[in-house]
């Protein structure tokens, strides 16, 4: 009988074709799943990196805002910068603590005489980001005053180095005012344009004689 054989062949051919189609669909679905999984991991990694960048920028901004805003209102009954210390100390590492404490001791007599600083932070950008160390550039404007005399606001760009300690980003050294380096990127390689200040905020303290000077107005250059 010919017809049954033909029908059987057609049935086997149909099953074979269906098997091939299913195999191709399975392969395509596996490939799609692998690609989707790879994309999903990539998104997670991207989110993780961005989250770390946001965290380190926030920590740098918080430090600059805390350390660069102070005045007589931070003095206690013993004329010590107790409120200022309590505000800034949790934001610094144990490595930076001794230098920070020394800077407060040097700063206190000036604040007793009426010296104050008011600072606003405009922006922050990550310059370096490692597993446990980061460098952030923080820019804004700052104005200094002595008693009732207030200087014009000056721009600044500070380089803030942070370290990761117990899942918290802490400032590890006195910030350096790098405004001049930012404004003049074509300068000689390796030639520093600014040095770290001994002030907790990384900005210059006033001259002892208290005279205003165009070259000593709170920063060594203007920010962006």
Brief synopsis:
By secondary structure, this protein is α+β, with helices and mostly antiparallel strands. The protein is built from four helices and six strands, in the order αααββββββα.
Strand tally is: 6
Q: Main sheet?
A: 6 strands, antiparallel
Helix content: 40-55%
Q: Provide a count of the helices.
A: 4
Residue windows where pLDDT falls under 50 for at least 5 positions: 1-5, 14-37, 180-196, 207-224
Helix and strand element order: HHHEEEEEEH
Morphology: globular
Question: Overall pLDDT, averaged?
Answer: 74
What proportion of the residues form beta strands (DSSP E)? 15-25%
Structural class: alpha+beta
Distance between the termini: 93 Å
Q: How do the helices and strands line up, and which of them pair or pack?
A:
Elements: H1 2-67, H2 82-88, H3 97-112, E1 115-129, E2 133-146, E3 149-150, E4 154-165, E5 168-171, E6 176-177, H4 179-183
Antiparallel strand pairs: 1-2, 2-3, 2-4, 4-5, 4-6
What this model shows, in words?
This protein is of the alpha+beta class. It contains four helices and six strands, in the order αααββββββα. The longest helix has 66 residues, at 2-67. Strands 1, 2, 3, 4, 5 and 6 form a six-stranded antiparallel β-sheet that branches. Helices cover 42% and strands 22% of the residues.
